[in-house]
Amino acid sequence: MIYPDSLSRVAGFLKYLGGGEAIAINVICGHYEHSGFTGKAVVVRLDSGYEWVSWEQAQYVPCWNVGGPLFTTEWLETGGTAPAGYNYEPIHDKDLEFSHPKLLQCSDLHALVQWDYQLVNTLGKSFLNGTKGRETHAIHPGGYAVRVLEAFPGMGTYGGRATAWENFEVIFLNPPRLSPVDYLEERVATFMNLKGDTWDYVWDASRYCAQKTRPWRYLCEEIPSYPEWSETIVRIHLRGYPDVFAAFPQTNDRFPHHESCGRCDKHHPLVFLWHDYPLWMHWPCSPDREFVVDRPATPEDVIDAWTHSSVTSGGPFYDWGREIDWKPKPGDKWHFLYGIAPNRDEELRDLVDAWLNPAAISCSEDLTVDYDLGQMMYIIRGSGKGPTQLTPQRVLVNPLIRWEKWEGAKPQAVALSEGRRYSVKVEMGGDDLFLSIPGKFENHLIVELD
After folding, report:
1. Using alpha carbons only, what angle is made at residue 87 by residues 82 and 91, rounded to the nearest 5 degrees?
2. Which residues pair with 280 in a beta bridge?
3. Rg of the chain on CA atoms, in Å
4. Cα 221 to the chain's mean position, in Å?
5. CA pair distance 55, 337, nearest whole angstrom
6. Is-contact 166 77, C-beta < 8 A?
7. How far apart are the first and last CA of the chain?
8. DSSP 3-state assignment of 205?
9. Among 28, 235, 325, 374, which residue is least crowded by beta carbons within 10 Å?
10. What DSSP assignment string belongs to 261-326?
């Protein structure tokens, strides 16, 4: 395990394949600088130029840096009935007493980072005397990561009854001199599912930092079929930077949630939509503690300070005055996929489909193969070296395989599909062998080792 205070480059990440092709991941634990602000960080840099960053100046919240703004899908957050006005989230932990990342696994083809935190208010007090979140982020060289959030509600009474449990919010961190109207399109987001349903959310740039916001909007009220969706995919449209995306399943086993939505009473996670181009300045890169829940910014604040803006939020429970006593079970887990969006919506759907619906696997009798949704990875165990066949349910995208406790030297590998041969990237990570087959596959894929 590697901690950010080790301040050292992780060895072995700048390797090259025989043909001179650079492998796509370089992991660094050390100091990170952005727009004049510096702090310790775990940084996963891709050959594409994008970075996944867990940075001290942002309370170690995991983000994608797309070249200017940083993008995150939030964390576990709650609000209580007392003390009034205070919410609880890790970004209030300005002293970093509870917020800590560490690098769990790494190879030239992936990185797995764990982030631990507590939900505290601006007084530094934790909800229910110790509510904790633990997240793992499995970063892939294709520019996307799987986020798994595990919740551990406290056993005390501080804060009273929970009025919400939120774990999803599309947030952009704006460095100084960068305003959300500079890069967020007015057609700010497209919501979609795997069946092909789509809906565009449109903002009005003239209402940037409007004193009077428009009424709240909710996805289940905008899209009548939304409660029947099996998954939510949202693409955020950026100007001058690549689009980004986030996706999560809506089934209760992969995304636990209350039995009824606070808006429509149907069984689905609630998703709501932020007002046009909002702006706050209490996070990141801010020691400010003199606020209750948030501190609105003005367009003038953008000149010198970091700010942040939100597009859409959601989660397993919102009270909305119902006075329901609901909280996650200790160890409940939620799954997300987020990152740099492929060029076309069809490609984005394929990626999410491949994540949520793994291929059927067959291999020799002395091997076992499982699929880890939390890492988007197939895991092989056993000492045999026979061929492994993956048969997609519909599509397979950039499959990544980890062969646990590999014995012997690093092998050569080849992949076969529909009579064609595909290159396989082969790397060691500790005692494990990692195999990556870049591409999209709709038929049997056979992986052979030499």
Report:
1. 150
2. 296, 308
3. 22
4. 26
5. 20
6. yes
7. 31
8. helix
9. 325
10. -TTT-SSS-EEEEPPSS--B-SSSS------SS--B--GGGGGTS-EEEEEEEEESEE-TT-----
* Of 434, 436, 426, 362, the residue nearest 392 (C-alpha): 362
Q: Comparing C-alpha atoms, which of 204, 198, 64, 213 is closest to residue 140? A: 64
Query: Are 408 and 374 within 8 A, CB to CB?
Result: no
Say how far apart CA 40 and CA 28 lie, in whole Å: 10
If you average pLDDT over residues 165-180, what whole number do you get?
Answer: 98
pLDDT in tens, 347-367: 999 999 999 999 999 888 788
Q: What 3-state class would DSSP assign to 439?
A: coil
**Parallel, antiparallel or unpaired: strands 70-72 and 77-80:** unpaired
Closest by Cα among 120, 133, 114, 27 to 62: 114
Supply the DSSP string of 215-269, one letter for each residue.
PPEEHHHH-TTGGG-SEEEEEEEESSS--EEEEEE-STTTS---SS-TTT-SSS-
Token reading at 339:
């990152």
Distance, in Å, from the CA atom of 378 to the CA atom of 90, rounded to the nearest integer, reads 32
346 phi and psi angles, rounded to 5 deg: -60, -40
HSE (side-chain half, CA atoms, 13 Å) at 265: 1
> pLDDT value at position 35?
95
Supply 62's token pair: 């995991």
Alpha-carbon distances of 147 from 7, 62, 68, rounded to whole Å? 25, 9, 22
pLDDT on residue 293: 85
pLDDT of residue 290: 85
Q: Residue 50 carries which DSSP code?
A: -
Per-residue tokens: 302 = 């953008």
pLDDT tens per residue, range 239-293: 999 999 999 999 999 999 999 999 999 999 999 999 999 999 999 999 988 888 8
* Cα gap 438→440, rounded to integer Å: 7
SS3 331: coil
SS3 track for 341-399: CCCCHHHHHHHHHHHHCCCEEECCCCEEEEEECCCCEEEEEECCCCCEEEECCCCEECC
Among the ranges 167-176, 284-293, 400-409, which has the highest mean pLDDT value?
A: 167-176
Residues 97/99/103/109 CA torsion (nearest 10 deg): -160
Q: What angle do CA 351, 236, 346 make, to 5 degrees?
A: 35
pLDDT at 3: 43
pLDDT digits (tens, 9 = 90+) for 8-23: 333 333 322 222 334 5
The pLDDT assigned to 233 comes to 98
For the chain, give the percent of residues with pLDDT over 90.
84
DSSP state of 98: S
Q: What is the pTM of this model?
A: 0.95
Contact 27, 10 (CB under 8 A): yes
